[in-house]
Amino acid sequence: MSSPEQRPFAVTLQIVSIVSFTFLLFLCIGFLLPVLPGFVHHELGFGATTAGLVIGAQYLSTLASRPLAGRLTDTRGAKRAVLYGLLALGAGGLLVLLATSLQALVWVSLALLLLSRLLIGFAQGLLGIGTASWGIARVGAQNTAKVISWNGIVCYGGIALGAPLGVILSSRLGLWSLGSGILLLAGIGLLLARGKAPAPIVQGTRMAFVAVLGRVLPYGLCVALGSIGFGSLATFITLYYGSRGWADPAWCLSLFGISFVGARLLFSGCINRFGGFNVAVACLLLESVGLLLLWQAPSPAFALLGSALTGAGLSLVYPALGVEAVLRIPASSRSSALGAYALFFDLALGIAGPLMGAIAAQAGYAAIFLVAALLAIAGFAVCLWLSRHTRQRHEELHFD
Asked: Does the domain made of 8-399 have the CATH classification 1.10.10.10?
């Protein structure tokens, strides 16, 4: 664990050395995002709702795995959670390889894809909590915001890099290369993780997960309402572009990720300077503007701008409210708090696929961005109320 005198750059290097495993995971996720919806829709012949279900299955699996991931990390250690997550990622890659090799058997291929998404979702649950807890243990709780921010940076950086790479790999080598690439990256991650020192396990009474969930509920609700925009963009941008006759949808995902990472690098200090609630309120409003622009985009250039604004807006919502949530939980249950908080993000992404697929089937692909914008505006309203309520409670306690 770092001391208060440790230099910021040294702290950052320690964090990056741990969250690099999250980067490998999201690089693999990025491979699949621009390719799988089209594969399910065009090659296998299923509808938009089924394509959304395939993508959303990963996030529902991640959601279901969060309590286990938090408990495992608190009791058995963060390193073990990361190793198990990398094994699950490799297994998911193997199923992707099989599914894309058996596309003539459409139902078998679809079933294998769904299983692969469940395994990759399980990997995401373990790696997300494991790397965050491992990083906090290495650099200290005073750097919680920095760890959460960097974990998000590598998540969306991985997607930004992985999306165009996935398109290039599948077009030049074939769909089989995606599953093979995931297997290779998971293997590299396992080799790197095995050599790292484990994080100490914090002793103390463990809170029941339901109690932890109750404490983080209001913060997670705001995150969920804002995160549906990302789920909608990630799942349907390829089909949305196709419905408009536009090319190169992967660049929307890349620009989203670049804007997301850039905003976190440039403005993450605003959380400590202006407060988590103020930052989250401003970011949710900006995200809403980006989604509305995607809804009404007359050309790919405007869609790219909308994606950039959406990414920049969403960038600081998670760490801004996450710091507020995690600090209200004892250190012995910190991983459970991270897992409970992340549940809301997973829930949003899991809902986004089938919900927005149904909306697209009835009203067209553009309509999903209008609905996502309205939900982000609702998150803005909830966050604003929560900020005022918390401020009022502090004033009452200070007065007493």
From this structure: no
